[in-house]
Write a structure and sequence with these properties.
Elements lengths: L6 E11 L1 H7 L2 H18 L5 E6 L2 E7 L5 H26 L6 E16 L2 E5 L1 H10 L9 E5 H6 L11 E4 L3 E5 L10
Parallel strand pairs: 4-6
Antiparallel strand pairs: 1-3, 1-4, 2-3, 4-5, 6-8, 7-8
Length: 189
C-alpha cells in the first residue's frame, strides 16, 4: 500500500517548562485561565504560518509542509512567540497578583510524515513526530527558555544559523540548543 500523503515538513513544539509544579501549586480555575491565555498567545503569534495538529496540556504540536524551510523565518517567529509569551506572563502575574513561574522551550524538527483523519481530528504520523516529542525530554538544556533545532532541521533549512546571537550549545547527536539572551532565572525583554 502506497501513501501519497507523505510529505516533508517542519515540526514545531512550544512547551512550557515548570508546568507540572505550576498545576500542583495553582488553583484549578486560575491555572486553567492562565494556560489558556498563554497557549492562545502562542497561537496568535503563529500568524497561521503553521497548522495546528494538537494541543496537549502545555504544548502545541505545530506543523508545516515545506521542502525549503527558512532558519531565519523560523527563528524570528520563535523570538516573537517568546516575547509575546513573556509579556503575557508579566501581564497575568500583575493582573492576578500571582507569581507565574513558567518558561518556554521550543523543539524544531524536520522530516517526512503523513496525516490521517479520525472523525473530526487530523492526526500526524511518522518518525519525526515521535522524535520531536522525545526531544522535549532531552536533559540537555542547562536552563529554561531555549530552542532546540534538530540536526535534521538544520541540514534541510536555508541555514543562516548565525542569525541567533544568543549562547548556543551543539550536541552532535541531536542538534543545536540556542538559549535566549542568557536568561537563566527570569525572562525580561
Amino acid at each position: 500500500m502506497e501513501n501519497t500523503n507523505i510529505k516533508e515538513g517542519i515540526i514545531l513544539i512550544p512547551d512550557f517548562s515548570g508546568f507540572t509544579e505550576f498545576v500542583f501549586n495553582t488553583k484549578l480555575y486560575t491555572g486553567e485561565y492562565i494556560v489558556r491565555q498563554l497557549l492562545s498567545t502562542l497561537i496568535d503569534m503563529n500568524n497561521e504560518y503553521f497548522e495546528i495538529s494538537e494541543i496537549e496540556g502545555d504544548a502545541i504540536l505545530f506543523y508545516r509542509y515545506d521542502k525549503n524551510p527558512s532558519y531565519k523565518k523560523i527563528s524570528g517567529m520563535l523570538r516573537s512567540m517568546l516575547n509575546a509569551f513573556t509579556r503575557k506572563v508579566e501581564e497575568l502575574s500583575k493582573s492576578l497578583s500571582t507569581a507565574i513561574d513558567l518558561s518556554l522551550k521550543f523543539i524544531v524538527h524536520y522530516g517526512k510524515f503523513s496525516q490521517y483523519k479520525i472523525g473530526n481530528f487530523q492526526k500526524l504520523y511518522g518518525k519525526p513526530i515521535v522524535e520531536a516529542h522525545q526531544m522535549l525530554k532531552n536533559g540537555l538544556a542547562e536552563y529554561p527558555s531555549y530552542v532546540l533545532f534538530s540536526n535534521s532541521f538544520l541540514e534541510n533549512s536555508q541555514n543562516e544559523e548565525d542569525e541567533f546571537n544568543e549562547e548556543k550549545k551543539r550536541h552532535p547527536e541531536v542538534g543545536v540548543i540556542h538559549y535566549f539572551e542568557n536568561q537563566r532565572d527570569s525572562i525580561i525583554f
